[in-house]
Amino acid sequence: MTGLAKRLLRQSLAVAVLLVSAAETDASFAASQLCYRGINLSGAEYGDRSGVPGTNYTYPSEDTVRYFANKGMNVVRLPFRWERLQPVLGQPLDGMELQRLKDAVDLIQKHGMAVVLDPHNFGYYDKDQLTQAPATDLAFGDFWARLAVEFDNQKGVFFGLMNEPHDIKAPDWLEAANTAIRSIRTVGARNLILVPGTNWTGAHSWAADVLGGGANGTVMLGVKDPLDFYAFEFHQYLDADSSGTHPVCDGTDSAKRGLSDVTDWLRKNGKRGFLGEFGIAASDGCLDGLKQVLDVMNTNSDVWLGWSYWAAGDWWPPEEPLNVQPHNGRDKPQMKVLTDGLSRKVSLAPSCAVVKPTK
Predict the structure, then answer these.
(1) The pTM is what?
(2) Catalytic residue among 97, 277, 319, 320, which?
(3) Which of 39, 140, 241, 323 is most buried (most C-beta within 10 Å)?
(4) How far apart are CA 114 and CA 158, in angstroms?
């Protein structure tokens, strides 16, 4: 090979290296998607403990599960009642109700979706507040030990400790949460755990000491998990009082600010978050607010694992403002915003690679 030929070869190789490098750079800046994006399928938490399945409460039907799976969603947050699953504190789970729960989990996973198990009790067992006898920390830990054994290490089954604890001071709730986590790990379950804060686990109030005893943002840093395999669960609605009970979105700015602050808190403390509930009515202003909420998470996928919209379910009335259950074969307007981009082939966020125990 002549000297000229060698120089031309070296130049060609150099250009090839530059092209590969540029391609890698482009890939590194490509949009990344959150690990989990899905829906709350409400219904199994309806009624009181004596409710009759199919009459007073219901688990999701296959048609409903299939609809949301076909939209590209990959996680279902599944609410149910603690009292119905464990009729007597400290005693075995009810076999028939447990089987209904297992059947629902199997159905959801049949359609390729993960499941968040959600005792939807707001920090109470019947009318007894969690951390107070008889609903003590130990009773809560016993419940989670029994439930964890039934789903231990089942791929794609996550444990949401409790829906929206409230009227409980943060240190008291922390002790209950740590008792449950310890119980889950003691029975050998390595599933991902979602840990809420007290005060309805609102993102907007995460830094506020509402009840005395300290703010969630300070106290909940005391979560102890021997596997370090948990994320914090937040809820955030867009009405003025962040309750999700009004068909307006006059609290959008506050909600976005709260989510942005929580994002900074997660990053600063090396934690991960999951937005377990958020929902809007179908007005133009609310749809724009929904886009803003999704943008916060989409642009911070290094700390957000994902979200589950509130809500849908076979028995949800069509006139319910936040409802995205299809009616007469037609999608609700919110679904266009929620599913925008779900079918695009976009790389998963780097944090998705570590959604597994670290020890």
Answers:
(1) 0.90
(2) 277
(3) 39
(4) 8
The residue with tokens 């990959």 is 74
Q: Is 257 exposed, middle or buried (0-12, 13-18, 19+ CB in 10 A)?
A: middle
Active site residue 277: yes
Residue closest to 40 by CA, chosen among 108, 123, 98: 108
Q: Which of 45, 97, 164, 233 is catalytic?
A: 164
Question: Distance between CA 168 and CA 132 in Å, rounded?
Answer: 10
Q: State the pLDDT at residue 14.
A: 36
Instruction: Please state the domain extents for the chain.
Output: 40-345
CA distance linking residue 266 with residue 233, whole number of Å: 11
Question: What's the rounded mean pLDDT across residues 196-202?
Answer: 97
40-345, CATH topology level? TIM Barrel (3.20.20)
Tell me phi and psi for residue 144, to 5 degrees: -70, -30
Say how many CA atoms lie within 13 Å of 222 toward its Cβ.
16
Overall residue count recorded for the chain in this entry: 359
